Amino acid sequence: MNPARARSFGAVADDYDRLRPPPVLAALRWLLPASDATGPTVLDLGAGTGLLTRALAAAGVTDVVAVEPDDAMRTVLATQSPGVRVLAGTAEDVPLPDASVDAVLVASAWHWFDPDRASAEIGRVLRPGGVLGLLWTFADPAEPWVAAMRHVGRADDRDATTVVEAGFAIDLPADAPFGPGTSEVFRDRTWMAAEDVAAMTGTWSSVLTLSAQERAQVHREARALVAAEVGTDPVAVPFVTAAWRAFRRSSER
After folding, report:
1. What sequence ranges are listed for the domain Methyltransferase type (predicted)?
2. Would you call 109 exposed, middle or buried from its count of C-beta atoms within 10 A (0-12, 13-18, 19+)?
3. Is position 153 within any domain?
4. Residue 227 domain flag
5. What does 90-145 look like in DSSP terms, one character per residue?
6. What pLDDT score was predicted for residue 185?
7. What is the pLDDT of residue 251?
8. pLDDT digits (tens, 9 = 90+) for 133-150
9. What is the pTM of this model?
């Protein structure tokens, strides 16, 4: 984990919320466990500004708890998601009782967690049989112009770029209380203004940790690339959600 990158998002919380894509809806339907008539209780862990929280509401989930450590991100989350219980906390110290949720979903944040401590905490708050769902949503690098934009934004070394085909694996600690995991990849397209496509690079941690001069240069290069390679406004941006899930074992082994 790179601490500077992990702490970089709060400075652009509003832009992050406006420009980052929500997960593909089909991915949420695949991740969420079957539930009784009352519906599942879902923890959005490392919730950021609440993109996943709002997507869960759109998918019909009525009982969501959002936990986020960054004050600025959490403020946007609470404003954009009225009625949702929003708590300060981390993946390594979740402010919820034992066995209190049916699913823990982590959107584009697992790589910031300490996997040993986070796996233990998630296992603690999950009910037996509950699901741990990890998902990453990003502009699809299988599209050549998107791959070029990721290069401009210094993001071509990020783990997400390799998670574009079904069958990818997540390695949990050996003592994590979960069964074997499975994965799926879901694709969709979202219309965005050309300027917003370029500005989205400014919400990437690989850009946020650059100097102000370097960030401005990335933005200029991204604008020029979108104009040259796409040439339309708005732009149909291809997005991919890579999703992985595992179920909590009913007893320790």
Report:
1. 43-132
2. buried
3. no
4. no
5. BTTB--S-TT-EEEEEEES-GGGS-HHHHHHHHHHHEEEEEEEEEEEEEE-TTSHH
6. 92
7. 66
8. 999 998 998 899 999 999
9. 0.87
